[in-house]
Each structure stands twice: as C-alpha cells, then as structure tokens.
Specification:
flat; mainly alpha
C-alpha cells in the first residue's frame, strides 16, 4: 500500500494497518468474504463511558432496514 515506515499511527485503523503491514507476507490468514456486507465502526471520544451510544447506532440502522450481523 506504499506507506513509509517513518509514520506511526495511533488511530485504531492505523494500528490495524500497521499490524497487517508488519505481519509476514507469506503467512496464510483465514479470511471470510460475505457478499454485500460492510464493516461499520463507531469511534469517538468518551464513547465507552457514554450510555446509549450503541443503542442509538443500532436503532438508526434498524429504522432504515439494515440487518446487523454480530459475531
């Protein structure tokens, strides 16, 4: 993906990218592809300590008819 090693991210996505980038290229990791499916992440300051954040997210998804798969 072409990122230089001089950059070190502290964001969640950056940490995932760094972990994937630093893993062995020849290592076979199990992957599961689900057609027409997306990953959604809700990230924000003090979200873990604020009641109702995930309820609001899931309610909004339900109102528009989205199906949520939890694993």
């Amino acid at each position: 993906m072409g990122r230089t090693n001089s950059y070190h991210s502290t964001s969640v996505l950056g940490l995932i990218y760094n972990t994937a980038e630093n893993s062995s290229q020849s290592e076979d990791l199990p992957a599961k592809v689900i057609p027409n499916c997306s990953i959604l992440a809700a990230v924000g300051q003090k979200m873990a300590s604020t009641p109702g954040v995930s309820a609001a997210l899931f309610n909004a998804l339900a109102k528009v008819g989205e199906v949520v798969l939890m694993n």
